[in-house]
Amino acid sequence: MTMTWSGHLLHIHIAPSASVEMEELAQARLIAGRGIEGDRYLLGTGTYSAKPDIREVTLIEVEVLEALEQGEPKVPGLATRLEPIDHRRNLTTRGVPLNHLVGRRFRVGEVVLKGGRMNFPCKYLEELLGVPGLYEGLLNRSGLNCSIEVGGVIRPGDPIVPLAD
């Protein structure tokens, strides 16, 4: 099946360890099979580092953040502005259908990623940010966990395109 869409990378964020404020980067080096240089999951210091999972790089759609700000879906009492630096995912995208990329390969600039599984929202993020209802607001759209097949440097503005299966 050929996918015909294209999007782009808006933001890159890393944190050196769990619960530490995320840092926005102008570029990042992704290391195949490991993660993002300087990020908690490459360093083994993330909240979920001890749990076996593909978490070399995580992505989220800016469209989800925009929907949350508009109060969609209708979670009682939730209409919140969640900045890209707050959601704890590494890459914020626009125009990329993340739910459709589970098990698929795609390119971000010169890097090749493979979608692992959809990221599950967690109460940890809701508590960390102090936003009641955020867990429910992110159900089924909390991002995508990926492996890095081909490493390299990425920058905001890089195109994101599907690769043939």
Automatic annotation (TrEMBL):
It comes from the Bacteria. Pfam families: MOSC (PF03473). Residues 23-163 form the MOSC domain. InterPro entries: MoCF_Sase_C, MOSC_domain, Pyrv_Knase-like_insert_dom_sf. PANTHER family: METAL-SULFUR CLUSTER BIOSYNTHESIS PROTEINS YUAD-RELATED (PTHR36930), MOSC DOMAIN-CONTAINING PROTEIN (PTHR36930:SF1). This is MOSC domain-containing protein. It comes from Methylobacterium crusticola.
